[in-house]
From TrEMBL:
Pfam families: Glycos_transf_2
Transmembrane region(s): 222-240, 246-268
CDD domains (UniProt xref): DPM1_like_bac
Organism, scientific name: Absicoccus intestinalis
This protein's name: Glycosyltransferase family 2 protein
Alphabetically ordered keywords of this record: Membrane, Transmembrane, Transmembrane helix
């Protein structure tokens, strides 16, 4: 008998939690020879998410929740869920049902019967997203050298989960950590679907910030760009030297210096935060699953 732990980061998800619980429970109950638990991590929600999680934990003994003292971010929520998961198969999925619950059964089959260490969903289109957001997402995956559409939705073996938990950095980027630890992964394609309710918490600004965090955590591309810009600027200066547009040069090269120093400073700030050794999250309230069985 295998146990499946489903980790669900939640931030203001009052409109979708009931539907999520119903759909995921229905799918989990179709997987033979398994038990399961649902671990909801409330990442400082300001709506009625906490009330719904308390209700679910009371009526369903498979449910537990962990509520943060404030919003620490999805990366911290996923890490907290991984630390609390008891299963030998562990799933991370969003509460908005954009990660199809119907994939849970083939994911379990890939690990238990095909002997993969991980089975992950890969979104093959971005229907419903704007062209700008689509372009930026595609460009980000190219910069960081990851498969476009590779997200957090995946089922992992206990061995892979334990390896991820060994990565204790404060500035976490889980997609990069998945790639870093390795292990054999099977990809299952799926089409993009709309949220069942509520609004996405990811706007262009938050996605851009998240992308920068991923780049600075798992790529030296900004430093390489700065070196390239510096070299090009140096060569270009000889071309413009006879013209002597002093004001232009001062503004242009001054901006380049600031850009390069900003990239270096960003890496230095990451090192600074790591050196503080602060906790990745703080739990304010929690409940334990009363049983882990069908």
């Amino acid at each position: 008998m295998h146990c499946i732990s489903v980790i669900v980061p939640c931030f203001n998800e009052e409109d979708v939690l009931q539907a999520f619980h119903q759909e995921v429970t229905k799918e989990l109950q179709t997987i033979d020879h398994t038990t399961y638990e649902l671990i909801f991590v409330n990442d400082g929600s300001s709506d009625h998410t906490q009330d719904i999680l308390e209700s679910l934990s009371q009526v369903d003994p498979h449910c537990s929740y962990y509520t943060f003292s404030r919003n620490f971010g999805k990366e911290a929520a996923m890490y907290a869920g991984l630390k609390q998961a008891k299963g030998d198969l562990v799933v991370i999925m969003d509460a908005d049902l954009q990660h199809p619950p119907r994939l849970l059964k083939p994911m379990a089959h890939a690990i238990l019967d095909e002997h993969y260490d991980c089975c992950a969903g890969k979104r093959i289109d971005r229907q419903g997203e704007g062209k700008l957001r689509n372009f930026l997402s595609h460009s980000f995956y190219k910069i960081i050298h990851m498969q476009d559409g590779a997200g957090d939705f995946r089922m992992m073996s206990r061995q892979m989960v334990d390896a991820i938990l060994e990565c204790k950095e404060y500035n976490r980027y889980m997609k990069g950590i998945f790639s870093f630890v390795g292990f054999d992964t099977k990809w299952i394609p799926f089409h993009n679907v709309e949220r069942v309710g509520g609004r996405s918490k990811w706007n262009l600004k938050s996605l851009f910030t998240y992308a920068l965090q991923g780049i600075y955590s798992f790529s030296d591309a900004p430093i390489q760009w700065c070196m390239g810009i510096g070299l090009i600027s140096l060569l270009a200066s000889f071309v413009f030297l006879p013209i002597r547009p002093i004001v232009f040069f001062l503004m242009f090269f001054g901006g380049l210096q600031i850009l390069c120093l900003s990239a270096i400073g960003e890496y230095a700030s990451k090192c600074y935060l790591e050196s503080k050794n602060r906790p990745i999250y703080i739990i304010k309230k929690q409940s334990q699953a009363r049983e882990i069985q069908k």
